[in-house]
Amino acid sequence: MSAIQYDSPNFFSEKECSTRMMYINRNPDVFRDIVKHMQGYYVAAKDEVHLENLMMDAFFYKLSRLAETLRQTMFVNVSGTVFKIARETILNDSPNFFALMEPFSDRNLTPTFFCRSPELFKDILGHLQGYEIHVRDRIHRNNLLKEARYFKLNNLIQKLSLGTDYIFSGFPTRPEERIKPEVTMLLKNIRAKHVLVKEWREFIKEPTTTRHSGSSIPLFGGGEDTHSKGSNHSKDINVGDDSNNVAATNKEKILQHNRSLIQSTELQDLLYKPTADIELLALVVELSSIELFAIWPGSVNSSMLGDQHLFVYRDQDLACLNKICKHLGLQTLTMAANVVQLSPNINFHLDGQSYKGQEELEPIIRKLAVSLAKVTPPGRALRLFLGRALVRMGCKSGQLVMTIVKAEGWSSDKEYNACRRYLTDDMKDFDAL
């Protein structure tokens, strides 16, 4: 009788039975675990099927204590590999895939089988447990990003998109910025809505539904007087038309401030701020599979562009860059070839040789340009193929400014072919065929 009263009120304590024999059409194996629970023993699920059956019978017999105990853990079957995970762990980094399924957890109907990679899920689980993930290479990072997007883990997506660490530059070109935090990102991973200009200010939220004409450029960031303006504005909410006038005036001031930033003749850094708890970071973009037309002072036909150089990149990269330009109100890039600058402290790995700074790079560029002129028609600049390049992003006079800080590439097919890698160095594999 004491066992029946355990975890009451329940199915048995509510029954007024006139007989000692009761017929219940349920699974007898699961009922053995139900009896153990009612005798005070701890009952744990063996796998996802056992957990589902126990949960169903816990609700059938109205055993709320057992249901709550079972709800603390869940099983996830990833392509045949079963993970037993605490529910509080799996719901970290919310809202995520599992948190979206939480309303159905009363019956544990959350899908527990996923046709995904078990090895990658171990990394996902480590993230949910609060550990740092060791990213082995670029392929591993891309695969982790796919899994993070599948399970809707926004914090992990941001970490993988931003790279392994933030970089604190202690040797800036401008001495007034002794230490400047920056981040390197692949261009395809950049979200335009997180890009802003230094000292960029956002519009004051209007309390009314009145719409004002003007530019619809989305603005992000916060100026030092934003909160004070917001507080003054909130005091005047009930004034009527005056509040609308104040809002329109503040909005126009902020818009003019942002326009003056992007139209300034001084170089303005583009910053990246994906979430509220991450500080503003100077943006460095990694581009791959691009061409550089180098036109150096004193090289062949240098009068064409002076000391400027041209980037030629893929259409999808051009589309990503134009999203940033449109978002900030900068002039869009109408061609796949656009002017790019070279940092005075550039590190250029060209034809297998590393050159540090323009003083080392300029002589080899001039030499290659002169030798190229002997075999190419007049008017051609030195054409370099870049496997990848790191580019610091900024804006000046309403235009996007790109400055190469590091690159690796080749000056000809001959040099590129010398760097080709064999699929295997073990020729015995071919002899065995």
Listing every helix as H and every strand as E from the N terminus to the C terminus, the arrangement reads HHHHEEHHEHHHEEEHHEEEHEEHEEHH
**Cα Rg:** 32 Å
Which ranges are low-confidence, i.e. pLDDT below 50, for 5 or more consecutive residues? 207-237, 297-306
Q: State the share of residues found in helices, binned by percent.
A: 25-40%
Mean residue pLDDT: 75
- Given the helix and strand composition, which structural class is it? alpha+beta
What does this structure look like?
The chain is an alpha+beta fold. Among the domains are: 70 residues, no CATH class; 92 residues, Potassium Channel Kv1.1, Chain A; 138 residues, no CATH class. 34% of the residues lie in helices and 22% in strands. A hairpin with a 2-residue loop joins strand 10 and strand 11. Helix 2 crosses helix 3, helix 7 crosses helix 8 and helix 8 packs antiparallel against helix 9. The longest helix is centred in the middle third of the chain and has 22 residues. The chain is elongated. The N and C termini lie far apart (76 Å). 25% of the residues are buried. It comes from Modicella reniformis. This is Potassium channel tetramerisation-type BTB domain-containing protein. InterPro entries: SKP1/BTB/POZ_sf (IPR011333), T1-type_BTB (IPR003131).
Set down the secondary structure blueprint:
Layout: H1 2-5, H2 28-38, H3 48-60, H4 64-70, E1 73-78, E2 81-86, H5 87-90, H6 97-100, E3 113-114, H7 118-128, H8 138-150, H9 154-162, E4 167-169, E5 180-186, E6 195-197, H10 226-235, H11 241-262, E7 268-272, E8 281-294, E9 309-312, H12 315-328, E10 337-350, E11 353-356, H13 358-373, E12 382-396, E13 399-410, H14 413-418, H15 428-431
Parallel strand pairs: 1-3, 5-8, 10-13
Antiparallel strand pairs: 1-2, 4-5, 6-7, 7-8, 7-12, 8-9, 8-12, 9-10, 10-11, 12-13
